[in-house]
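Morning!

This is the sequence you dropped in the shared folder:
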Amino acid sequence: MQRLTETGYDIMNDTKKKILVVEDEKSISDIIKFNLEKEGFAVYTSYDGEDALVKQVTYDPDLILLDVMLPKLDGFTVC
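The structure's back. Tokens below.
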């Protein structure tokens, strides 16, 4: 059973939940990352579809926030 605190911390496994943010506009990605980290999540970022696929395998995130219009591979292809 998974129990999260209000800040995204998994108290049963003593770990932060991981989120991969895939957004090609760095300013938007930075804002999202800042706010999620402030809430206690471990956040990884990617700026194109190809890199997103690599980071998905590498980090095994619990959630992926995926933009649709991305360079190299679009969000639909990545999904």
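Headline: The CA atoms of residues 13 and 47 lie 30 Å apart.

More detail when I'm at my desk.
O.
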